[in-house]
Design a protein that fits this description.
By secondary structure, the chain is an all-alpha fold. The chain is built from two helices and no strands. The longest helix has about 45 residues. It is found in: Cell membrane.
């Protein structure tokens, strides 16, 4: 019976590692795409840079918030459940 409990804890560790890893990769890809689109827009319309910059930082905060939530849930699963 002790072996089955050990396997469940090991699966929990793997699940948390995958959750945190995919959150980091997703945030990096999302912010990279967002930054490239911002630079494209700034190159096309230089007079709209202040408006684009404001929208860029708002959306970047939203894109970055989802991985933070995933990391928080992963750490909760790691320390509170196991």
């Amino acid at each position: 019976m002790e072996n089955v409990s050990n396997v469940n804890i090991d699966m929990l560790y793997i699940a948390v590692a995958i959750m945190i890893g995919l959150a980091a990769i997703g945030a990096a890809i999302g912010i990279g795409i967002l930054g490239s689109k911002f630079l494209e827009g700034a190159a096309r319309q230089p007079d709209l840079v202040p408006l684009l910059r404001t929208q860029f930082f708002v959306v970047m905060g939203l894109v970055d918030a989802i991985p933070m939530i995933a990391v928080g849930l992963g750490l909760y699963m790691l320390f509170a459940i196991s």
